[in-house]
Protein ARV
Amino acid sequence: GVEALTGLGVIPRPMAALGSYRCIECNEEATELYRDYQRGVLRISICKSCQKPVDKYIEYDPVIILINAVLCKAQAYRHILFNTKINIHGKLCIFCLLCEAYLRWLQLQDSSQNTDPDDLIRYAKEWDFYRMFGIASLEQTSFFIGIFITLWWMTPEMLKRKSDFILLLKALLLSTYGKLLLIPAVIWEHDYTPLCLAFIKMFVLISNSQAIRVTLNLNRILPWLAIFFGLILENGVVCLFQKIGWDV
């Protein structure tokens, strides 16, 4: 029924008047996800290229879609990026940066070796937290710039239009959702280890790689190469801050 086709809570547009869809299996463009025969009769469209349903996820529960996205399945990424309307990219990015900045602020707090509660309240009102947020933002920006430069240099035909850059940026922002795993570290404060943070970082990089691969329809090697150069530029920014004398 109609309820089964709501996907992420919004029924996808039936026709491609507002933009083309993509087959989640072969990445070919499609003009529609389903056809409405009126009186509640809906039929999922079949891809003309691979002869499979264009987007089977439109009748899946959002929890199943989320699980498949966490498993980094290309089909789930195509569904989210091409066949749904999601506008949480900026909010998600800011929220993740706030979590990261707060963790860095806690580490800076620990290094001060001051346990006076009154001093903690005073310390929270200072600019160190905002400095950490700014540093985290600059690091992520430099990481994305490194990715864009590498992809533009190696596959310029993939990023000819402004819309291509915007789509890839949205994909990268969405793929940083793994940083939400930092929330438990924020809640339980010191109950986390560097190993846990390293796993979170690796998961985010894997998600970034899958987002690049799905968005530009590339092989597995080129996205990781772009991420490698992005990390080099990000670490360069970190080294610059360290030379200035800032704790990062």
Remarks:
- Residues 8 and 63 are 9 Å apart (CA to CA).
- Confidence is low (pLDDT under 50) at residues 1-19.
